Every structure is written in C-alpha cells, then in structure tokens.
Amino acid sequence: MKLNMHMRMRLLGGLAAAALSLFALSGCTFISDPVSQMRVPQLPADKASLMAAINSSLKALDGTLTRPANDDNSSIFTEDLDRDGVMETLVFYQTKNEAVVNHGMILEKQGESWVKKLTFDGDGNILDSVDLKDVTGDGKLNIIVGYSRGEEKGVKGMVVYSYSGGVLEEILTKPYTQYIIDDLNEDGIVDITVVYFKRNEFATLTTYQYDDSFKVLDELDDLDPYFNGYYNIVSGKVAANKEGIVLDSAVDTRSAYTTLVVMENNKLRVVIPGDVRTFKDRKIVSEDIDLDGIIEIGMLVPPKGWEYFDPETIPYFNSYYKWDGKEGLTFSTQLYNDPLDRFTINFAPEWQERVTVDTKSVQNKSLKFIMTDTGETVAEVSFFSPAEWDNVKNTGWKLLGRDLDKMIGYRGDLEQSTIGGEDGRIKSSIERKGIDE
C-alpha cells in the first residue's frame, strides 16, 4: 500500500496572507532599489526616465519613497488610471518633521518624459495597503488606500479616490480593520465590504456599492466582539456558485473560531456562526487548501485513538471543511501540520480519514503514521541528535530539516504526486517550513 503526499505553501497570522494578520502592524519599509520594484513600464529607458522624475520630485519634497505593508513587491504603480490613453504613475512617500507624514504623488507620461501632476496628503504614519480597482463602474481605476497608526492597533482609515482629468477626489472614507473588494451579491458590480472591529465593543461588516455615490447595501452590526482580534479574513468562493467572506477570530493567544458570511438578496447573512462547530485550540488559517477554487474552514481533530489523551500531547490533524450551502459543513481534506510549523504532511484523497498516528508516538521525538484498518506503518517522522543521525541516515531515513540541535528525518512511501489544482503543478510529499537545512 502506498501513501501519496504533497506540499502546499500556507500562511498564518498574517494572516496575509495569506494568509493576513490584521493587528501585527509594522513600520514602513524603504526600498533600496526602486527600479527593481517597478511593475511597468518595462523598457529600461522608460524606467530611467520615470525614476529620474520620481527622484527629482522626492528631493524637492524632502520625501522618501515607501511601499504599502500589504505588498512586498511594488512601490511604484503605473497604469492608465482614467483610461484616456495617457499613462500615470502613482507613488507614496513619507516626510519628516511634518504634521502629516504620509503622502501620495501622481505623475503623467508626456512624450518621453514624466511630469508631476499632483501630490496629496494621507493619514496615519503607516501606508497599510494600496489597490487599483474600478469600484465605481465607470471603467476608470480607483485608488483604494488604507492608512494606519502603528502605535494604535486596529486604528486604520480607508480612502477611495477617483482620478480623472488631472483631478483627484475622495469619494469614500471609512475606518476599518480590513476591507474586501469583491462582488458579494454577484450582480456584476464590484462592492466594498468594510470589516470594523474593536475588542469587547463592536464587530461590524458593512457592504457599500457605488450608484452616483457609495451607498450601503447592508450591514451586520451584531457580530460577537468578545475576542482578541481577526488573524485572517479572506473572501472568494465559499461554495461552487457562491461568494462569501470567511473571518478567522483569535479568541486568545492560541484558540480561535471561524465565521462565514454570505450575501443573499442584498442582505448579509451569517451562515456559519463562530461557535463550537468551528472552535479550535490552535489557530488555523481558512483557505482554499485543496486548490479547487473554494475556501475551506480548518479544524483541529485528534487522530483516531487519541480522543482521551491529554490535549497537550495529542498530535492533532488539521481537517478542512466546506460549507454545504445550508447551515452545515462537509469534510474536504486532512493533513498533519507540525505544531511549531516546521513541516506539513498532506494526505492524498484516497487516504483521507484512513490514516492515524500510533498512540505510542511522542511529539518532538517520533511520529508513526499508520492505517486505521490494518495498523500498517506508512510513514514516520523522527528527531535525532547529530550522532544518532549519522547512524541512521543510510538506513532509509531522509533528511527533512534541522531544528536547533536536532535533525528531523522521515521515511516511508513519500512519492511526489499531482494533487489538486488545474495547473498540474507537482506537490512535494512533505513541506519543509522555516528550517535551516
């Protein structure tokens, strides 16, 4: 009998990202090579011309180029914002010794040169996010910016700008914890849902849609606010033909629960409340774990045979569930994720709920994965001292990684297999995470 496993990169706390951690705000990051961060234009001459214009303007403004905290790759955004056939470039910068430290600047391509069109003031001391999306339905790209104050966790402000004919206008400003750009009511028109949370006081979701101005489609103002904070919020397909928002809430430093919200007939509805069904003793990020385009909710499940052991000793499985379209959840997939996030084993569909962990296993020492029906050992993970590793490394054990003074090894039938996703990517049998190999 063979066990197939595959790698899947996953984020936690922050979430962002993918996983996204909403409250671990960091200071602005300054880039050392702005040219390498540019999206477009791609011609070296255009890059040089644009960078010369940006640097000249920043020098005159005594500003330093910055990038949004939600984007590690871009600090310079070049698009035809108002769709008039002329390219614009948007950058953000910070100044010192001023009441307002966050600023934006728009430059316009004129012939072979770039000319500064305008500058504008932001808010807070951190540029939290930047999105360029048409949220008004006029075919032009809006600028959606999130500003925050790092010393005051959760205090953020979102601004939606309209740019046309060289004029920038604020058309929506709201406090927020996270904003989501989607089409929740699936009417073909983009909407913005603002999640706003203050611990022990309120937790609200408000969906706005543009019709001459932004109007409230619906609001949920009675969500439970008695938790530490959201560590992951993700939107997308929550069923084959249904958009939704999944909110992972940290109850304390360890435990969590998940809430699922959809929109029906322009009304927001909680279809899976944050209760005992989605409570877990360890934070798990909701995500499309099996790459089928639908977001799953993760739960901690003890392997068969471990139900009555001390919870601190149980090598829990991560089991993921899909919303059934009504009021329940259906099993999707199962994996083993090391509690210190050092590696992940994801079992192929034919092994789901048929594998357990031998009850003689001990966390951080030796884990033996066995079949529930036959007791056959199909994989092992063990921790060795360097001397022990020298003795076993040629006896069927393969190096998974190193952790402090221990060598982590595995053995078993760990062939690569193509599982999930439409791109046919090969997933490795085990994912190594954060280990110095």
If you compute it from the alpha carbons, what radius of gyration comes out, rounded to the nearest whole angstrom? 25 Å
Helix share, percent: under 10%
Instruction: Report the uncertain regions.
Output: 1-43, 414-429
Shape: globular
Please tally the helical runs, counting DSSP H or I stretches of 4 or more residues.
2
Mean pLDDT: 84
Strand content: 35-45%
What do you see in this structure?
By secondary structure, this protein is mainly beta. It has helices at 44-61, 386-392, and strands spanning 63-66, 76-79, 88-95, 102-110, 113-121, 126-133, 142-148, 156-164, 167-175, 178-182, 191-198, 202-211, 213-220, 229-239, 242-250, 256-264, 267-272, 297-301, 317-323, 329-337, 343-346, 355-357, 366-371, 377-384, 398-403, 406-412, 430-432. The longest helix has 18 residues, at 44-61. The two termini are 30 Å apart.
